[in-house]
Write a sequence for this structure.
């Protein structure tokens, strides 16, 4: 799966458009969990809407293309997902997914509706059996199928929705802050469930979007960090956590508090200032007004993504360093 | 607990709050007893529904307890009634809430919000004195009065509004600040600056802070002592290192095992298949 040069803006007339996602290119490989991290307003949920083809006005896609499983889909203009994509190619697990179950129907009836909406050829009995079998494979109690949503806990509902939304074995699952409404124990169970879905091959890849870096470091193979609509760094999780290159990633990592005696010893600094208004993004590097390492060029020219294919960062400092290293 | 030489600032004895009656009764806060010393930062942690916020509302006297007592400087404040008596209490105990945008009237400028906060002092104050206090409180939280006073909440960023909320509590010079999830609506980079602010306030004014959070990392960073709540009960309390480093209660142990860590421990074992605690 690959997206290229995606620009997605919110029309905000009479003001200029909000440039929520600006020229982002990413790839998610088979069997991989790609984490997309960033703070509120960095464009990560907009990116989820773009990839899941659920962009609706005022959000519009200015340019970009999506390649999935050998098919290339231009994203600009009014996009309609090919009929065979729905639920099978891309599935979405949003933050409030636990509330998407039908409160007046048993879970099994909901499952039948979902499966048959995508494939009317499946009989209701087959759909139920498929769900039952899937729950068993994932060591979840099949009796949840006979329950009404209010009889299940929030964590269990979220897990049930995760299972139901992947019943059709989608190629890509987009999980947009799926854990933020849950307590830590349910969070862990959901993350383990998603990993299991991937391991068993029910889904091929996951885009896991969150602001919660500790959570992400426990599930993602690679992490892409976004700031103000731009991709600022992409690398393996261990690299992002252990050797971040971009000043924003560094600040983000160092302001993360683990419950560990070491965090008490030192005083953390955080980042001064606030994210920019994306109607009027800063010139060139969008992080420069808050960056402690900003140089003149940072206000003049946009930094390119530099580094090796395994570790890319968009920062002039990094660019300079890599040029010194390879004269 | 070890004998404390100092008299506690705040103490609760068997504090309880029930909602509903008979079979349907929910014990939101159940026989909770603890003390807060002057100048101490105490964290209350627990998952959603554990009774943290109900406890905060009881301590702020926004909600009447159904059992137990609250003592401030050794005096029972549970029986305080009416605006006049409670105002006196609120001069000493102030609050910072989770959602700053919900806590402020969106039609009031920050000047009006901060000015109204001074009404709790119950005395006529010259405009100059008022402004002096407000300016000092804003400086305390790192805001420029000229930049924020004439603005409405929606014109400020989340971090700034949260600072205004802290300034609102500070204008009356409280002895105890009850901060209920003050950072959970903020981004990680801003979160640390608010936590630092709370630490600084303690340093400068020897203010006691009751810091309510579900985030163990934050509790570890700011607090001296920690109270763990589970289903309305206080299941464990003690110095932070002791409670989180060597948890005794089963719930605290599970919490520590389940919390995702950025550094150390590595990933959660994927082999451990998720099990359902209930159906």
């Amino acid at each position: 799966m690959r997206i290229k040069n995606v620009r997605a803006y919110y029309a905000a007339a009479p003001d200029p458009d909000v440039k929520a996602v600006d020229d982002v290119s990413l790839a998610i490989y088979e069997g991989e969990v790609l984490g997309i991290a960033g703070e509120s307003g960095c464009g990560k949920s907009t990116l989820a809407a773009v990839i899941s083809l659920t962009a609706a006005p005022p959000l519009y896609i200015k340019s970009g293309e999506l390649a999935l499983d050998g098919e290339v889909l231009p994203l600009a203009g009014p996009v309609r997902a090919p009929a065979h994509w729905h639920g099978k190619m891309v599935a979405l697990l949003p933050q409030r997914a636990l509330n998407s179950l039908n409160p007046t129907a048993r879970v099994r009836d909901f499952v039948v509706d979902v499966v048959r909406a995508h494939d009317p050829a499946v009989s209701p009995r087959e759909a139920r059996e498929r769900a039952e079998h899937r729950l068993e494979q994932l060591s979840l109690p099949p009796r949840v199928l006979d329950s009404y949503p209010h009889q299940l806990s929030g964590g269990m509902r979220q897990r049930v929705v995760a299972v139901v939304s992947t019943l059709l074995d989608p190629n890509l699952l987009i999980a947009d802050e799926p854990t933020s409404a849950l307590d830590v124990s349910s969070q862990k169970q959901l993350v383990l469930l998603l990993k299991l879905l991937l391991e068993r091959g029910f889904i091929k890849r996951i885009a896991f979007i969150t602001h919660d870096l500790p959570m992400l470091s426990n599930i993602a193979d690679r992490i892409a960090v976004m700031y103000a609509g731009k991709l600022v760094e992409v690398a393996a999780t261990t690299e992002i956590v252990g050797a971040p290159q971009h000043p924003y990633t560094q600040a983000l990592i160092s302001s993360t508090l683990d419950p560990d005696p070491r965090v008490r010893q030192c005083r953390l600094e955080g980042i001064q200032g606030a994210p920019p208004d994306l109607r009027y993004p800063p010139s060139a590097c969008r992080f420069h007004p808050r960056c402690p390492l900003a140089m003149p060029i940072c206000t003049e020219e946009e930094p390119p993504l530099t580094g090796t294919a395994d570790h890319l960062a968009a920062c002039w400092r990094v660019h300079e360093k890599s040029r010194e290293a390879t004269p | 607990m070890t004998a404390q030489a100092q008299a506690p600032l705040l103490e609760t004895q068997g504090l309880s709050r029930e909602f509903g009656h008979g079979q349907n009764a929910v014990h939101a806060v159940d026989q909770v007893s603890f003390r807060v010393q002057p100048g101490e930062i105490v964290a209350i942690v627990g998952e959603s529904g554990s009774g943290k916020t109900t406890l905060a509302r009881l301590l702020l006297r926004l909600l009447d307890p159904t059992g137990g007592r609250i003592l401030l400087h050794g005096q029972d404040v549970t029986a305080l009634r009416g605006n006049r008596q409670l105002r006196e209490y609120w001069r000493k105990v102030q609050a910072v809430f989770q959602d700053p945008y919900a806590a402020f009237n969106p039609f009031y400028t920050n000047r009006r919000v901060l000015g109204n906060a001074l009404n709790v002092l119950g005395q006529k104050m010259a405009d100059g004195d008022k402004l002096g206090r407000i300016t000092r409180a804003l400086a305390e939280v790192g805001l420029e009065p000229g930049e924020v006073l004439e603005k409405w909440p929606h014109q400020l960023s989340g971090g700034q509004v949260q600072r205004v909320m802290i300034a609102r509590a500070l204008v009356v010079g409280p002895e105890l600040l009850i901060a209920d999830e003050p950072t959970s609506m903020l981004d990680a980079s801003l979160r640390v600056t608010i936590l630092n602010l709370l630490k600084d306030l303690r340093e400068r004014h020897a203010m006691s802070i009751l810091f309510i959070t579900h985030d163990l990392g934050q509790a570890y960073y700011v607090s001296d002592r920690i109270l763990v709540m589970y289903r309305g009960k206080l299941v464990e309390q003690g110095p932070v290192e002791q409670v989180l480093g060597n948890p005794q209660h089963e719930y605290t142990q599970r919490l520590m095992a389940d919390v995702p860590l950025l550094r150390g421990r590595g990933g959660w074992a994927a082999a451990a298949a998720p099990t359902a605690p209930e159906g």
Summary: Confidence is low (pLDDT under 50) at residues 269-279 of chain B. The radius of gyration of chain B is 20 Å. The first helix of chain B runs from residue 52 to 59. The longest strand of chain B covers residues 26-36.
